[in-house]
Amino acid sequence: MRVATRYFGDIEVDEGKILLFPWGIPGFEHLRRFLLLEDRGFFWLQSVDDKDVVFAVCDPFVCFPGYEVEIPTAECEALGITKSDEVIVLAIMNVRSPQDIGVNLLAPLVINCTLKMGKQIILEDERYTLYHPLVLRGQGDAVDARHNKED
Amino acid sequence: MLVITRRINESIRIGENIEVKVVAIERGKVRLGVLAPPDVPIYREELYRSLVQKNQEALFASEEMVHALKEVFGNAPRE
């Protein structure tokens, strides 16, 4: 099927790649179908049904070494998760300015890759916030670590 | 808004399968237990509102921000 995207124009997509967010994403509950598009070092979570709804997302374990997620049992059940290797966890980024990028570590996106189903969950973890400053290149190795891995 | 008085260990039921129970009352705080099917999201109201706001702010509006992001992740800008 063809999908209109914000940054990649119209693209042809295998329907099997579409991720279903049965509860939407808070604030965008009416949108249920998304695509995960890889960029370099991060991803775009693009709505299939509204090209203007697209989130920049990152791998929080790469951007924040030491980040931990404990997915509550009820959420595992809701997402049909049975084993950990079928799960990917992503975090929405909020770019206020080039020097001020926040990552939502408190409410990560949890995706069951087997069922292609996702949900934004809120953790019960006081260490994390909805806007965790991302350490910029040159100021730390958080982002560079990803680079070294890819090169 | 419907207002109902409940005592400790009493519940209200919403629809067929959601039960909200008063578990404890202590110094201005009420602890609630919620029994609901796993597909019903339950949030603390203020946290839900903040999350909605953060998600809306995170929507990409300007090319400048996209450029900033690509720079941070060490990516050359696309054409």
Note down, in words, how this protein is organized.
The complex is a heterodimer of chains A (151) and B (79). Chain A is mainly beta. Helices cover 13% and strands 34% of the residues of chain A. Chain A has three helices and eleven strands. Chain A has helices spanning 60-63, 73-79, 142-150, and strands at residues 2-5, 9-12, 19-20, 33-38, 43-47, 54-58, 87-97, 100-103, 109-112, 117-120, 132-133. In chain B, strand 1 and strand 2 form a beta hairpin. The relative contact order of chain B is 0.09. Chain B is α+β, with helices and mostly antiparallel strands and 79 residues long. In chain B, 30% of the residues lie in helices and 25% in strands. Chain B contains two helices and three strands, in the order E-E-E-H-H. Chain B has a three-stranded antiparallel sheet, with no helix packed on it. Chain B has helices spanning 45-58, 63-72; strands at residues 11-14, 18-26, 29-35. The chains are: A mainly beta (151), B alpha+beta (79). Chain A binds chain B through residues 6-7, 22-23, 25-28, 39-42, 52-56, 74-75, 77-78, 92-95, 97-98, 101, 104, 107, 119-120, 122, 130-131, 134, 136-137, 143-144, 146-147, and chain B through 38-39, 41, 43, 47-48, 50-60, 65-75, 78.
Uncertain runs of chain B: none
The proportion of residues forming helix of chain A, as a percent range, comes to 10-25%
What quaternary form is this? Answer: heterodimer
Query: Runs of chain A with pLDDT <50, length 5+?
Result: 139-151
Give the DSSP E fraction of chain A (strand runs of 2 or more residues). Answer: 25-35%
- Helix-strand sequence of chain A: EEEEEEHHEEEEEH
- Residue-averaged pLDDT of chain B: 88
Task: Give the total of beta strands of chain A.
Answer: 11
Helical/strand content category of chain B: alpha+beta
Number of strand elements of chain B:
3
Main β-sheet description of chain B: 3 strands, antiparallel
Largest interface: A-B, 42 and 29 residues
Between the first and last Cα atoms of chain B, what is the distance in angstroms?
Answer: 53 Å
